[in-house]
Amino acid sequence: GVHTVDILASADPGAEGTIDPDSLVLKSSGNTPNGVCSIAGGDLTFTANADASVGSVDTCVVEICEEKPADACKEAVYTFEIHEAFAPKNDTIDGARGKSSVVSIQDLLSNDGNVDDTTFKLVPGSATGGAVRIDGTNVIFDTDATATSAAFEYEICSGIPGDTTCETVTVTVRIHDEPNIDTTGAWTKENTPVKLPTVVDPLLVNTVVSVDGGTATIDPNTGELLVTPAPGKLGDLPVVIESCTPTTPAACSQETIVVVV
After folding, report:
1. Sign (positive or negative) of CA dihedral 100, 105, 110, 114
2. What are 84-111's pLDDT values in tens digits?
3. How many Cα neighbours within 13 Å face the side chain of 241?
4. Long-range Cβ contacts of 76-82 (<8 Å, 24+ apart)
5. Could you report the per-residue pLDDT of 54-89, keeping only the tens digit for each?
6. What is the pTM of this model?
């Protein structure tokens, strides 16, 4: 970040004194541990490095001379505390049609940098594809049953002392369908694995709950189910699958798929 001080306006030469604008000289090294000091046009500018250490304090020393009543010079020390940058970023949360999603305000602000969380507020009329409200320390978004897209906005202000900047952030609601597990079974030979095509939506949270007589895994990229019978297993091999939306709270479905060996 960059911070500028108008030395001619801020320095006090006394009731009758005036400052010589051409006298301003940077007495300290221009490079500090966390940034660079520079003087131009009566202004002192401190530019923090991108990797500046948050919480540290750097100093710039400037010589200031009077034009009158006496041609006297003094050194002034200006200190600059390094703060985390205020850098709000758009967010994405998960939702399901006809369901409510809950996200904490702190989670929304976690990627916004140095913020004053007391200034958080929803932007009126910004919600599309549903309705949004604040409940204590959480934001609740109620997704419409027929929504194909959804979003809302909030406003947050900087937590850096002296910085009154506020920005609007867009939160996109990624809409998921209700879990739908394809329970169509399959058959396989003894000691032979079988793959069942896309039994679940891979965008959902899918889990193999239990397998009676073998092992089973779900491909997270395709939603395919691979079932491997235990050695010597014959007959029905039931696999219990659970599929949930990645929302808070989640909407879940649990079904049994039977593979005949």
Report:
1. positive
2. 889 999 999 999 888 899 999 999 999 9
3. 33
4. 76/7, 76/11, 78/5, 78/44, 78/46, 80/3, 80/35, 80/46, 80/48, 81/55, 81/56, 81/57, 82/34, 82/35, 82/48, 82/52, 82/53, 82/54, 82/55, 82/56, 82/57, 82/58
5. 888 999 998 888 766 566 788 888 898 888 889 999
6. 0.66
